[in-house]
Amino acid sequence: MIIKNNVLLSVTSSDLDSNGVLRIPDGVTDVANGVGCDMVELRELHLPDSLHKIETSAFLDNPCLESIYLGEGIKKLHNNVFSGCQYITHIQIPHSWKSLGLEIELKMPRLRRVSRKNSAGETQIFNLTKFLHFYCETQPRRIGNVEISKLYNLYFDADGLAPHYQICLKYKNHSVTEKNLATAIAVCRQKLLMQEFERAAWEYEVLNGDADYNYLGTLRYALRKTLLTTNKIDSNVRKTVRQYIQNIPTYIKYMKQLKDKYKNAASTSQELNETTISKLLQTIMPLPRKRLVSQSCTRWLKRHPVGPNEMHSIVSHGYKNPGAFPYSWLKNIDKSKRGAATKKLHAAFKRATTKMYSPDEITIQPWRHSDEIAELTQKISEIIKQPVEIMYLDSGNFAKTYTIQIPGDKKYVWKIYHCDRDAQLLSSYHHDTELQNSFLLGGRRYYGKTKFRKICTAGISNQRGEIYLIYPYTEYTMSDPWIYKPYQNLCRYTLVDRNSCNFINNTLVDIGALRINYPRWHQPRYVSKIMNTVLYQSNNNLGYILNNYTSKQIKMAIDFINDKLSRNDLNYAQICKKIEFLKRGAKIK
Q1: Cβ proximity of 296 and 453 under 8 Å
Q2: pLDDT band at 387, cuts 50/70/90?
Q3: Are 401 and 415 in contact (CB under 8 A)?
Q4: 406-433 pLDDT, tens digit each
Q5: CA–CA separation, 393 vs 583, rounded Å?
Q6: What is the pLDDT of residue 242?
Q7: b or e along 276-304 (b: 16 or more beta carbons within 10 Å of the residue's beta carbon)?
Q8: Which run of H or of E encompasses 210?
Q9: In the chain, N or C: fewer CB atoms in 10 Å?
Q10: What are the backbone dihedrals phi and psi of residue 38, each rounded to the nearest 5 degrees, phi first?
Q11: What are the angstrom distances between the C-alpha of 562 and each of 163, 246, 364, 534, 566?
């Protein structure tokens, strides 16, 4: 051993004792570069408290080195001081250290024990476990086949480990480390359920080959996203997931049917990706039947607002097509054959709607479905015995619109849309009741000359709800100030998407831009009549109210209007004058 000016310059095998222990004498302050390299007999290394600096590569490639005792004067280890010493299992660190440091974490993969003196001078030994990083595992307990322990992060204070720990859960060769026990249990259950899915998917591939690999990927992603977004994976969730796993062949069959149905669409699998189990099944599974209705239920629908799934259930149970086609389309057909011609027209529109609807296609080019348009044009001309022209208008996130015209007749809008593309997306844009709105808003005047055009006819596919609407097209230059006028809060419907793109000329084509105010439908009939007269009709009609309604009824209607009326409305002063006139006429205080 050569020491010069308190610097250790060289060490040989003769400096080791019989047990392979090397003790650097007290007083050494520095260790030079390459001092103790390639010493096969070295098993244990003791560094004094006087030592402050160890040069890089001081103890390289000592394959039998197992224990290191660092002195209290060492503040940090430089890179590669102990490189090549792969079998170090124990290290004693100075009291001033608050953590192990990257040199130890990265270069000592077999480290199992760390010793350190506390403020009282007592040596504490910490047994280590490695899960990507080193932890001190304490308080293990076993419950059946489950082992639970605390993993303390290797951060030290004056008395030992700082109170920062995670929970480790071990079950069937699965090890999960999380912040708390509930999260660890949830993650472990997620892994086990995913393992069950992978087993079932493997069995399916063995029996059916790997042709359905993409469908299995869709199911896998839906399961993973469902588990990650579920707060508590209890017995009910596990039961649902296991039932989902058992029905893998059924779900793949329905996804194949969906792809075959939209084989002419630009892409048919995008709306199945990045979704949860519930949304995926809502998309691919047949809709249930909830209630019995007659073939014609327009009047019933006006009194009973329904959601999209309930609407499709009604359709699945027999309800077909509300309304009829324009008379000008059927005038060349014998009266006795108009019913059969109407059914043929509906069938033609239904086939074209199903072909041209693209589930994941935000916008389309006019030429994308030119073959389908040509085929539909020819079919309609053959049925009604008149030439027909169909022109592309526009498309948006939910629908495509075309105009249909017989030469010399007015134009009609043919709108294709789908009402259960994404439940969250549709509800946020209020498109989930578009078909319902088409029955409720026919012919209603809104602002200025803007009207909700009456729906002539509509049809619904009974599998997933591809819907087509046909209504008159008004070629009238729209005035933007009317569209952006503050809307009334007393209507049965509220315009929530005041975008000029929702209007083609003066026709509101995006009926999903309206929110139906369901709670306000439950007012007595006379309240609605009085309210509509006060809000939308001239002063001359106020006498009709005074002659046909009692003071009590008028007072109830006025109270309802006052409770809902907004001072920001442009017609606020005029409405107040009408209310005062009714109060005087009905002698209401």
Answers
A1: no
A2: very high
A3: yes
A4: 988 888 888 876 544 444 544 555 455 5
A5: 50
A6: 92
A7: bbebbebbbeebeeeeebeeeeeeebeee
A8: none
A9: C
A10: 55, 45
A11: 62, 58, 47, 11, 8
> What DSSP assignment string belongs to 50-110?
T--EE-TTTT---TT--EEE--TT---PPTTTTTT-TT--EEE--TT-SB--HHHHHH-TT
pLDDT band for 367, please (50, 70, 90 cuts): low
Q: Please check whether residue 55 is in contact with residue 29, taking contact to mean a CB–CB distance below 8 angstroms.
A: no
Are 120 and 98 a contacting pair, CB within 8 Å?
no
| Average pLDDT of the residues in 67-88 | 86
> How many residues comprise the chain?
589
Across the chain, mean pLDDT equals 76
Torsion, Cα of 411, 417, 419, 425 (10° steps): -110
- pLDDT higher than 70, residue 576: yes
Q: State the pairing for strand pair 165-171/146-153.
A: antiparallel
In 144-258, which ranges are E strands?
146-153, 156-157, 160-161, 165-171, 174-178
Confidence check: pLDDT of 557 > 60: yes
Neighbours of 48 (CB within 10 A): 18
Q: CA-based diameter of the chain, in Å?
A: 123
The structure tokens listed for 64 are: 């039998």
Q: At CA 321, angle to CA 316 and CA 324, rounded to 5?
A: 175
Pairing mode of beta strands 514-516, 21-23: unpaired
Residue 268 and residue 573: Cα distance in Å, rounded? 54
206-220, 254-268, 276-290, 554-568, range with greatest mean pLDDT? 206-220
Whole-angstrom Cα distance, residue 583 to residue 571?
19
Helix (H, G, I), strand (E, B) or coil at 416: strand
Per-residue pLDDT band at 91 (split at 50, 70, 90): very high
Q: Tokens in use for 292?
A: 């019995």
pTM: 0.49
Q: DSSP assignment of 6-67, as one string? A: TEEEE--GGGS-TTSEEEPPTT--EE-TTSS-S-TT--EEE--TT--EE-TTTT---TT--E
CA proximity to 311, closest of 518, 514, 466: 466
Q: What is the mean pLDDT of residues 464-481?
A: 60
Give pLDDT tens digits for 243-271: 999 999 999 988 887 777 666 554 556 66
CA-based Rg of the chain, rounded to a whole angstrom? 39
Measured distance CA(476)–CA(454) in Å, rounded: 16
For tokens 């989902």, name the residue: 244
- Residue 378: pLDDT above 90? yes
Strand, coil or helix: 176: strand
C-alpha–C-alpha distance, residues 8 and 341, integer Å: 106
Pair 247, 300: CB distance under 8 Å:
no
Three-class DSSP labels, 434-483: HHHHHHHCCCCECCCCCECCCCCEEEECCCCCEEEEEEECCCCCCCHHHH
Q: Tokens for 395?
A: 């498309």
Q: Which residue has the tokens 């990927």?
A: 217
Which strand (E) or helix (H) includes residue 113?
strand 113-117
Centre a 10 Å sphere on the Cβ of residue 537 and count the other Cβ atoms it contains.
Answer: 13
